[in-house]
Specification:
Number of helices: 7
Order of helices and strands: HHHHHHH
Shape: elongated
Structural class: mainly alpha
Radius of gyration: 35 Å
Mean pLDDT: 82
Distance between the termini: 106 Å
């Protein structure tokens, strides 16, 4: 019984290390709460409900699509694949052709001199 009295009085005393430990625990709890709030925000963007919300925000038919959305939609159709391959081939070819356009070619080009060279054209 005497040993239990010593133990309880020993645990009732608060020391600086106990206060520091309590403060550390409060900081850890605050950190965990902040992480949980962030996780809840992330979880709200996932799952079936979030996917349905994103789906409902999209245009309902292809007639409501514009610009890049319409182009990507049309590229997904099997019948348009030859057109997509042709467009990609011509685009890549034009890019490669333009990237090899050196200064001599620019000097010989009436179009370049008329519209792009400094002091030319309009």
């Amino acid at each position: 019984s005497a040993s239990t009295t010593k133990t309880t009085t020993k645990h009732n005393k608060t020391t600086m290390s106990d206060l520091a430990a309590a403060e550390k625990i409060k900081q850890i709890d605050a950190s965990f709460k902040a992480q949980m709030d962030h996780s809840k925000k992330v979880w709200a963007t996932r799952g079936r409900e979030a996917q349905m919300a994103v789906h409902n925000a999209r245009p309902k038919t292809w007639r409501n699509l514009k610009g890049i959305q319409l182009m990507v939609h049309e590229c997904g159709h099997v019948g348009n694949r030859p057109f997509v391959w042709g467009l990609a081939t011509v685009s890549i070819g034009c890019f490669l052709w333009q990237s090899t356009f050196d200064d001599k070619m620019k000097a010989d080009s009436d179009y370049w001199q008329a519209f792009h060279a400094k002091g030319g054209g309009h």
